[in-house]
Specification:
alpha+beta, Porin, 6 helices
């Protein structure tokens, strides 16, 4: 919290010295979660190296987030935005980083162009995925964890067309992003090049959305470096199966695409939100999968009750053979391939309560029951061998205070 205040004070000082108009706002989620299943960790964001469960039964860090935003209306057509987020990352400690740093040019009220670091557009809540207060549920749907690209360095173009009671929204986006993700074998550095589009329609209490993105992925780091070096040695030695692995493991320039659809209904009493998504990768470094969720809730003034069903299923048909060799290189290759073959299959049912204490603060309680089939890891990390191979039922309890200011 001290570092969070220092960031805000620093932004205010810079704005005052530069004599520019700046509007400040912020958000925070103070969360505490418990997972009694000691076979694996649940994590709230893909960058986190530990979570609740195997590493620690309970944690106040896994789902807690702090952020500040500074918006400067430079002119009628130009606006600058700077947003800093502070949360737990791959090194298991809180660290602030710039989530947004961009300029927006609006030649009209319906046309907007942004340049710099902007939010990714994959899901309905991509623009506000860090702001817990803006959504009904405590934790983001499981499918959100499977797309770790939260922002890109590039630009987008948005256009709104109004016709009667309906507003049609078109968004084109392109850019690149870097991300470090933690696995049992170590940290992998991913580089993404992304381009795509989404189309949305808002009509009265309804909204619909379609999205399609194409991504080129390259991986690096000590783990993949050892893997590639070992695989090259095995190829040179003519080890049976090494050629099959090499032809299926694209590490540099892997092509992937994501297609999704979303729907929201909210009449002030009843709420329904659902998203479906499918990710296809042309290689076996990244799993192909499909999934989605349905969230249904009812409002009673300041209280809301909701239930949610999540489902994810891997569609990658792995054909990476286990190498029969005593070489240390074979052990490295077999170990990485075994980890990649762990399916992300999961079913989950959540029940939650939201209480809006004030116009800028909400208290949430959430219970999630995960059903994991055999030979799968689901959205969990740091899993034991028994957890992966056996079916498992995981109960996650969470409480959070979300505020905006």
């Amino acid at each position: 919290m001290i570092r969070y205040g220092v960031i805000l004070l620093g932004l205010q000082t810079i704005a005052a010295q530069a004599d520019v108009p700046v509007e400040f706002s912020g958000f925070a989620t103070l969360a505490y979660e418990h997972n009694g299943q000691r076979g694996a960790d649940w994590r709230n964001a893909s960058e986190e190296g530990v979570g609740v469960g195997r590493s620690t039964a309970s944690s106040g860090a896994v789902a807690s987030v702090f952020g500040v935003q500074a918006v400067s209306p430079i002119s009628e057509q130009w606006q600058a935005t700077f947003q800093v987020v502070d949360r737990e990352l791959s090194h298991d400690d809180f660290a602030p980083y710039p989530e947004w740093v961009n300029l927006r040019y609006s030649p009209s009220s319906d046309l907007h162009l942004r340049f710099g670091r902007i939010s990714n557009n994959t899901f309905l809540m991509s623009e506000s995925r860090e702001i817990g207060y803006s959504r009904m549920m405590l934790n983001l749907p499981v499918i959100y964890v499977t797309d770790p690209i939260e922002y890109i360095n590039g630009g987008d173009l948005s256009y709104d067309l109004r016709a009667g009671d309906a507003t049609y929204h078109i968004n084109l986006i392109g850019g690149q992003s870097d991300l470090k993700l933690s696995y049992a074998a170590g940290v992998v550095h991913y580089h993404f090049h992304e381009g795509g589009a989404n189309i949305g329609v808002n009509w009265r209490n309804h909204s619909w959305r379609l999205v399609y993105n194409q991504v080129t992925i390259s991986g690096s780091g000590s783990v993949l470096g050892q893997y590639q070096q070992g695989l090259s040695q095995l190829l040179s030695a003519g080890v049976p199966g090494a050629a099959t692995i090499a032809s299926n493991m694209v590490i540099d320039g892997l092509k992937a695409r994501f297609a999704g659809a979303g729907y929201t209904y909210d009449d002030g009493t009843w709420w329904l939100q659902s998203e479906l998504g499918r990710r296809d990768a042309q290689g076996q470094l990244i799993q192909s999968l499909y999934g989605g969720y349905v969230n249904l809730g009812r409002h009673w003034q300041d209280l809301a009750l909701y239930t949610q069903y999540d489902h994810i299923h891997s569609t990658t048909g792995y054909n990476l053979p286990m190498l029969n060799s005593s070489s240390p290189a074979a052990a490295i290759v077999n170990g990485v391939d075994t980890g990649l073959a762990q399916a992300q299959n999961i079913n989950a049912l959540s029940l939650g309560l939201r209480w809006d204490l004030k116009t800028n603060a909400a208290l949430k309680l959430e219970y999630t029951y995960f059903i994991k089939p055999e030979d799968a890891i689901g959205p969990f990390i740091n899993a034991s061998s028994q957890f992966v191979h056996d079916s498992a039922h995981v109960q996650l309890l969470g409480a959070a205070l979300d505020v905006i200011f």
